[in-house]
Amino acid sequence: MIDVEIVRLPHGEGLPEPVAATAGAAGYDIASADDVELAPGARQLVRTGFAIAVPAGFECQIRPRSGLALKHGVTLPNTPATIDSDYRGELKVALINLGAEHFRVTRGMRIAQLVFARVEAVCFRRAEELGATGRGEGGFGSTGH
Fold first, then answer.
1. Is the pTM value of this prediction over 0.90?
2. Second-level CATH architecture of 5-118
3. Measured between alpha carbons, how far is 122 from 120 in angstroms, rounded to an integer?
4. Domain-by-domain residue ranges, the chain?
5. Is 54:38 a contact under the CB 8 Å cutoff?
6. Rounded Cα gap, residues 22 and 28, in angstroms
7. How many Å apart are CA 79 and CA 58, to the nearest integer?
8. Which residues pair with 115 in a beta bridge?
9. What are the per-10-residue average pLDDT scores of the chain (145 residues)?
């Protein structure tokens, strides 16, 4: 388990803290600090009313809630969004309505979930060529699945 510091911002007072819905849930549901109307095809940046300090060596991914995506077509256009360990501003969620109906986001509504993941630093090393594999340069759809 990692410790994540959280600061509640004035416009987020009274909102629930990020919380796992069940003991086995990977994500922590987060609520909207705003009331927003999303027309079909519209995108909106929605405030959460809090900031967090992601520990070094980790990232925080913001992911859609499956129920909103399935039932209403509301998802994240940049999923998963990444919150880096050196960001200290308010978490905001970019929502998009891919559904056919207007969708109303209300203050306190669960709009997304946070998932924390370890990240590794990478050192790129130049090479003259890459080692051969059975797949080679086959890209999108090349494996037949």
1. no
2. Distorted Sandwich (2.70)
3. 6
4. 5-118
5. no
6. 9
7. 17
8. 61
9. 97 97 96 98 98 98 96 96 97 98 98 97 95 84 68
Q: Position of tokens 């129920």?
A: 67
Q: Which residue has the tokens 């999923």?
A: 79
Q: How far apart are CA 42 and CA 57, in angstroms?
A: 34
One-letter-per-residue 3-state SS of the chain: CCCCEEEECHHHCCCCCCECCCCCCCCEEEECCCCEEECCCCEEEEEEEEEEECCCCEEEEEEECHHHHHHHCEECCCCCEEECCCCCCEEEEEEEECCCCCEEECCCCEEEEEEEEECCCCCCCCCCCCCCCCCCCCCCCCCCC
Q: CA-CA distance, 97 to 44, in Å (whole number)? A: 9
Spell out a b/e string for 119-137, using b for 16 or more CB atoms within 10 Å of the CB, else e.
Answer: eeeeeeeeeeeeeeeeeee
For 83, the token pair is: 């919150």
C-alpha 138/C-alpha 76 separation (Å) is 29
CB 95 within 8 A of CB 104: no
Report the C-alpha gap between 87 and 90 in whole angstroms.
9
Measured between alpha carbons, how far is 109 from 98 in angstroms, rounded to an integer? 18
